[in-house]
## 1
Amino acid sequence: MRLDWSAFLKVLDESKRVVLTSHVRPDCDALGSELGMAGILEAVGKDVRIVNAQETPASLQWIDPRRKLESLAQGITPADLDDRDLLIVLDTSAWAQLGAMGEVLKRQRERVVVVDHHVSEDDLSDRWFKDPTAEATARIVYEIGLRLRVPLTESIATPLYAGLSTDTGGFRFPSASGETFRVAARLVDAGASPPFIYRELFEQDTLARLHLVGRTLAGARTFNDGNCIVSTVRQSDIKEVGASPADTEDLINLTLAVKGTQVAAIMIEQPDKRVKLSFRSRGAADCSALAGHFGGGGHKAAAGAITTGAFDEIEKQVTEAVDAAWHALHPA
């Protein structure tokens, strides 16, 4: 991995009280990386807290049986974290994705370290430990454990496997290599249970979520001979089927599953009227560049952004951006 391990291990060695955080609307790679890192750091004697801006989504609470995950939404204040001598940001490099935790970091920016695998970045810190070639931040955390010589336990392996498996699309994305499977095997040997994790991730849908899936797919539009697909989710869609905001997670991947699709985009209206954008690509289209048009970023195959404005206008802009990206690669 392309990291300055000696510098990173020196930072860890000089710290005693650590707080870990990640992005809003946390996914398995965010939460799994936090929990895996907490287990590793606690094994070498660190006092560790995990504090996010938002509470853990109900659908992902299974990943935290020891209830290590805390949030500012539960009443923790920035002053409560002033005793921390190291703040590690995992799985994001963007201020906009930190929510209220961004203010905590700004108070103590000199203590901030970023561990991430996304390409784009803001000025969160002067100390970056990033590897855009890593298939998941959980993979980087796994490597940290190796270098600290921490034995894998079930409580470390399970969240790391969850992060690794979800960020590789169940090991089906091009980012999954032979070594990805070897790492996964070691995590399974240490106690991670693929059947349990799969069941918790993919076999817990409510009927309301399935109704939302149906509505989203029914309204999806394809163009460029079926190579591009765009879909939308309005707050009215969520309310009318009785779904929750968390039920919108992973809808983008279902649209990418439509036969022939090479580029997918989805626009999801948020309760505060902002719009969450997600992009996915099977081929040469650069999702990070697409998201960059709207102030976001990510990877070539998967990226996202949060933007503001009239929903219909944003839908028009996203459609035009996807169309332009496709034609740039496939000129008439």
## 2
Amino acid sequence: MRVAVFGLGRMGVRRAELLAEHDAVAELIVANRAEERGREVAARLDAAWLPIGEALDAPMDAAIVATATATHGRFVEQLVTRGVPVLCEKPLAVSVTESRRLAQLIAGASVPVQMGFQRRHDPGYRAARDAVASGALGTLYSLRLAAHDAEPSPEDYIPTSGGIFRDMHVHDFDLARWLTGEEVLQVFATGSVRHWERFARHDDVDTTAIVLTTESGIPIAVTGARHNPLGYDSRAELFGSRDSLSVGLTRHSPLRSVEGGEPQAPTPVGFLDRFETAFSAETRAFLDVARGQAPNPCAPEDAVQALRIAEACERSRRERRAVALEEIEA
């Protein structure tokens, strides 16, 4: 396969590294705007560097879009129009309206576009989903999700991030739908700046608490923070009538128990090491999807629905009320 990676930030470079290790990838193209960095990455991975414009026109069997958030839609549309299967990092687009338009375009083109919600490929989260789907957990009473960055975002990133609900919690919103197998009907979200004033300067928050309610009434509690001094944290707790289980709670979790037990090294310092296994599995899955060997594990419609929940949470925070998902365009 000839595969191209667009964008060489942290995520783009990691995707390129994973592709370079895969036997199915015979030729790798990397494309970005900073030529010096692009050529350096290409040389390290035995890949070809091309300017973005040339890369978009180059022959390829598949592509990964890991460019700046606001540009995802443009790249996806150009590639899909050419018939190129795409793995797009979240989000598909910055608004629900544009995401819906692109999802419809993709459906009409019959070209696979897999969305980059890597937690669906994490072994722990997959085991939890299997426990719910198989009935091993019994009736799912409630779900708790925790999302804590190790270090707060640099200030120059905040204005273009879309805010904490769209940038960080959108992964949790995808998990909520995927783990329960249900749609979210209502949200109540609150947030504040507890420490990092850089977020206040851009009308964002550094700490959140959210309650989602699903179709059957499952309450889902989500908490988030832009800083955790012990490391990057992504965890879940599921409580059912037959069993209760956790995801992400290990001796390496960045959480100290007052009843004894310090986190053991190594603790995750970022999402790339916390989800190293998941990113690898997700990239392999995409190559199978691109070759027509597997169904798409995360479609554009999933990205649309996660973004709708994020927008409902932002409205809830601002208006200080519960927001029904039907208030957000479908």
## 3
Amino acid sequence: MALPTRENSNVSLSDSNYGPIPGESRAYVDYNKTAASFPGNITGATMPTEAEPPGPDDLLFQNLISAEWAIFDFYQQGVEAFNQSSFTDLGLPNTTYDRVINIRDNEAGHLRIFQDSISATSVKPGPCTYDYGLNNASTWLALQVVLELSSMAFLTGLVREAELKDTMSALVAIAEVESRHNTWALIHTFNTNPFSGPADTVFPYANEILDLTNRYIVPGSCPSANPVYPSPRQKLPATTAVVEKAKGIVEFEFTDAGNQPDWHWQQKDRQYYAVYFHGVQNITMPFDIKTNQSDYPIMFDAEQGMIVAVIANKVGAPSLDSVVAGPALIIEQPSFS
């Protein structure tokens, strides 16, 4: 089958039988070409073709495909920028570049699944332009494992938002594939034990993690018809977590000079907390607003998986509006220290 090209009308994307069908076509398994694979080779948003109310999970899939465009483009940039020797020069097996292409093809399949999951009454968001600030294969591989870990964390949260059982099942199926991608990276690239303990991290507020991908979007580059991403968007102060395990502390750095926390806007002496999510549990530590530090949660199984940390005004961050900054991703496995 010839793949549709950029010249095709986006209206055709409303037809689930248009182009290769996920689960039936090898295009999402081993397309194996440098050029972007369908539907990643079609730009622009797809407008609604019916004037009816949105489907029950349209907003969820609009958020998800907007994130998936960023992930697909990350792999596409890797396929275009590198070749087999880019990775063998790092001492990696000569199959590494082929696997990167395979994952790119899988991600293209995710795009099509998510497009098909948005009803004909809602916009299907198109890709923006993305800048990952990468200049070599080594830094690309480091970000790759962060993106895959993040994908699993936000998918566990999105499941909680789904209205339809078919959506819940689809999200679990996609998460399983992302887990395979990450397992490959941990074994193949980092020579690390891939097992992260009995459960990957559950983070209940998926849009907060999705919002992290906005840092890679070139301002003004998204199709004008795209909805706000993610929706709803809290625009929380961005933070990174610097872990000093020898001292038993975590220091939070608020990285956006134009969006800093205001610790006193609700009340002067309010207590804030660093809430750490790992596995299916969370642990709360007092947060010092003078030093921007908290104790490190030593109760968690060390060097396993990922910890998602937020700053909250209530123990356990029990609701979306209790989170006032973050999230910060603390990658325990592999260790980048």
